[in-house]
Amino acid sequence: MRAVLPDAFTEVLARHGDRVAVTDADGSLGYAELGARARAAAKRLARYDERGERLRVGLYATNSVEYVIGYLATLFAGAVPFLADSAFGPFELSRIAEDCGLDLLIHAPSADVRAVADETLTDDGEFGYLTVSRVRSHDTPRPVLLDDTEVCRFTSGSTGRPNCIEFSGTAVSAAAANWAKGTGLVAEDRIACFAALSNGLAFNTSLLAAFLPGASLHLSHGLPTASRVVRLLENTAATRLVAFPALYESIVRRAPKEGFAAVRTAISSGAPLRETVREEFTRLTGVPIHNYYGVAETGPLTYAPDGAGSGLGAPLPGVHLLAEEQGIRVRSESMGSRYLNAPGLFEKRVDDEGYYHTGDQGRLLDGTLHLTGRTSRLVNVGGRKIDPIEIADVLRAAPGVLDAVAFEAENQHGEPTLAAVVAVEPGVTAQSLRTHCAATLPSFKVPGILRLVDRIPANSIGKPSIERLRRLLSAPQSN
Amino acid sequence: MDSSALRSKILDLAIAAGDGSVTADELAATNYSLRDVGFSSLSYMRLIDSIENEVGVYLDPEAAIEHYETIDSVTALVLASGAAADA
């Protein structure tokens, strides 16, 4: 089967030749240069092949020009890129490597990859500051990829095992084309992208989508504080800002006077944006924030072109969306195929008509989607979804812990965060529990609010009462 | 502002920037390590914003990670950033 994405990228890289394709704080590449760099790196990757079947290459790094080179190189080498969140810790990384049978890992030299790799491969600088390591092989057979799978991305699974979604090249290509068309991306656009390219928002809105019309992609890594965002916007004269709610909150806190002159469109996703933040951002900068609704498994689904109000917009081209009593279900041209490492789970969420059941509740009003709730138990903290059951299990395994419940609560800033109430023996401290969690969980999964008690308050049938637990958080800590 | 007053201010700002369960006592028990009390990236963003607002310096979030580990290292970074801004 002929792959779709190498041809798609080859075509756009040739078509836009001298235009700027991608920049970061350390450099800039035109389309033709990006193509040349990616092909050189692809040749190097092909030499690392030991199995004679499609290489599986994990990308485990923050945004940079080199990240884009590594992604394209993997496609050009006929290999399959697995885009892992750089915030994943060693535990999740090793689960991914083993579950998905990764061969190689492209990563920053400073990243702790000892859990999965011990051989750094030599190169001649084709990957820039990034390094390629060979992943240790496992005795167990690895799951077979579908023939048409060209990209794999991850979504929050439970018990620390991120689910690996297989995407066909056709789906990735359709997501980009429909986004570019549905949101009016043009060659003159300069996209400042602060969301990680491993994340669905950035992947679908800023990578192939940016390159199709010949727009330029401007990347930044590290904490996107308002001051840094303003500097990048000023340096690049960006016309689009792709970010998540925490960044908009930061801008509202700092209230910058300048930096947004060229920005026409701001896109927020990952987690709900508070209405007060949206209004204040637009008042300060004059830039509307456009909502977008997407699901990791299905790609981008809606977009709000006018940027006003709390609605999530109308379905994008290629999307059929039904908002019914049993929840929102969708069929899109950008749908994933299945989970590589969780057989049958994805298929269970797709009905006989080919609609994926999102787990979200909502309604369409005048063709605009409004979310009203979720049926999923996952907690969304700053755009990262966390399974509270997984966190409670980790806490229960800590020495001196009698029981633990994790749940969503508001922090002192009115934002959703993960809270845990833990029944402990004398001598256990919040500090020791945090250290315990940090040893096995990535930092974003460590509860932001920890409350230690003698006993978990329960309701009349013996189940933990979330209402009582929430009230307990607002009472002063007694121990 | 002298360094002791600045440190005290940064301590207050850090407690305000957290999710709500970090106290001055807990910070004292960890030698004022923000890492050890589980300061998240969202909390760091709030802290950097509030320091920039209140002290009037630009803090580079790309500065080496050790600058953001404790109240004392953040204080040193703010002092160095202020000195650079004054120069």
TrEMBL record, chain A:
Q: Which UniProt keywords apply?
A: Ligase
Q: Name one Pfam family in it.
A: AMP-binding
Q: Any idea where the AMP-binding enzyme C-terminal domain is?
A: 390-463
Q: Domain AMP-dependent synthetase/ligase: where?
A: 10-336
Q: Which Gene3D superfamilies match?
A: 3.30.300.30, N-terminal domain of ligase-like
Q: Which GO terms describe its molecular function?
A: ligase activity
Entry annotated with the keyword Ligase: yes
Q: Which InterPro entries match?
A: AMP-bd_C, AMP-bd_C_sf, AMP-dep_synth/lig_dom, ANL_N_sf, ATP-dep_AMP-bd_enzyme
Q: Which PANTHER family match?
A: LONG-CHAIN-FATTY-ACID--COA LIGASE, NONRIBOSOMAL PEPTIDE SYNTHASE PES1 (EUROFUNG)-RELATED
> By what name is this protein known?
Acyl--CoA ligase
Lineage, top ranks: Bacteria, Bacillati, Actinomycetota, Actinomycetes, Kitasatosporales
TrEMBL record, chain B:
Q: In this protein, which residues make up the domain named Carrier? A: 25-77
InterPro entries registered for this protein in UniProt: ACP-like_sf, PP-bd_ACP
* Pfam families documented for this protein: PP-binding
The protein depicted here goes by the name Carrier domain-containing protein
Organism classification: Bacteria, Bacillati, Actinomycetota, Actinomycetes, Kitasatosporales
